Amino acid sequence: MKIEKYVFKRKFELLSKNYISKTRLPLILVNLKGDIAYGSNSCKLCGHLLGGKNIMLIKNCRLKMISAIKEAFRWGEGYITTCPTGLIMFAVPIVYNKKLIGGFLSGFAVFPEMKEDIDEEIQENLKKYCDSGKNINLDKLKLRVFHLEEVREYVSFLFTLTRKYNVNDINFLRDINEKYVQQYKIANFLEDLKRSTHDVGRKIYDKQDEIIQKVKLGDKTGAREILNEFLGSIFFESGMNFEILKVRIIELVVILSRAAIEAGVEAKELLGLNYSYLTDLNKVTDIEELLYKLTEILENFINKVSLTKEKKKKTKIHKMREYINQHFTRRITADKVAKSAGLSVSRALHLFKEETGMSLSNYIAKLRIDYGKYLLINTEINLADLANEVGFYDQSHFAKNFKKFETITPFRFRLKYKS
What are phi and psi of 38, to 5 degrees? Predict the structure, then answer.
């Protein structure tokens, strides 16, 4: 597919304007042949000093851009490299229907640590493409200097813009990146294992238990980290035997399913899923895909557990609120409220504050004040009796709490709104 049919010129102009206004860097859109679809057709170096006419340099520049775009696609993120003359450039891939069709190129600047020697380096690199005796005045360039942190920020911003203008499959690239990050972590753990004297078999079971606990807690991030170490241990133990890996992973899925049920997920919810998971895993013939599917399955189990916990939490809160609504005008204690939801006092107080944003005592006081406001406006009851009616010790206690919430005394509130 031609990249111009996916990234229309008008879209590029809008995206480019947004990008350049923030970064002050050039931006070009390049296809997989190295042809520039939109944007400036040369950086300052090629355009100002060589007139953009050196065929050999242009060819190498195109090859370098294509290589940068393909590397960015391989990693699922921005790729930082240098152009043939030594300037820093970075690529962001453009994906359509899960296929790479080109990418954005930007940068063409230098890092601070390069500035001192960059003239000499460029001159040396240009000898490959120009007569060594040709006089090239690098002072005209006024090269932009940026830090690595800035480059990462610009790459992130460019990715955000491709999502904003709907010119990229960001989710697919994120999946690619997650696969490579996982493999990188597993490889590092394998290296650590090679230098370790620990019993690998024991480590496998320990990591398996840790994963189960993370699933029960609904801790997705923690579970993924431990999963990488678990997989690294299996790799090491099996000698990278694919069939052994598959068997151990299928065993783990069965164990995780049991852990999810113990955490409260209904067994009937998992029956169909488990069959689907095991069938999919059994069909996989590639290690990379096997690992990625296992990560997806792990996250699905954790999502199920988290959803179940959230439902239970809502039910507990509902029971506490129901009890409070029925008893707030009488003496009410944290112990009784906690018992209504089958919780300990400390857990009930923490959960209540987390869900309502108010302490239990403030919540009860607010209900009493709201009821008091109704009685002040709609009845002639005196303040002493009203205080007792809504659940306060006496008139003074009611007045103090009323002013705390309403910034006005009950007497003045009645005068203001009853009339």
Answer: -140, 155
What is the Cα–Cα distance from 186 to 198, expressed in whole angstroms? Answer: 17
Say which CATH superfamily domain 316-418 falls into: Homeodomain-like (1.10.10.60)
Give the pTM.
Answer: 0.54
Residue 416 has pLDDT above 60, yes or no: yes
Mean pLDDT computed over every residue of the chain: 83
Q: What are 109's two structure tokens?
A: 């600047």
C-alpha span between 338 and 342 (Å, rounded): 6
Report in angstroms the alpha-carbon separations of 246 from 2, 243, 288.
40, 5, 12
Share of the chain above pLDDT 70, in %: 87
> What is residue 132's predicted lDDT score, i.e. its pLDDT?
46
Quick check: 52 pLDDT over 60? Answer: no
Q: Does domain 3-168 have CATH number 3.30.450?
A: yes
190-199, 345-354, 398-407: which range is least confident on average? Answer: 190-199
Q: How far apart are CA 219 and CA 404, in angstroms?
A: 40
Domain ranges of the chain: 3-168, 175-308, 316-418
Cβ proximity of 87 and 109 under 8 Å: yes
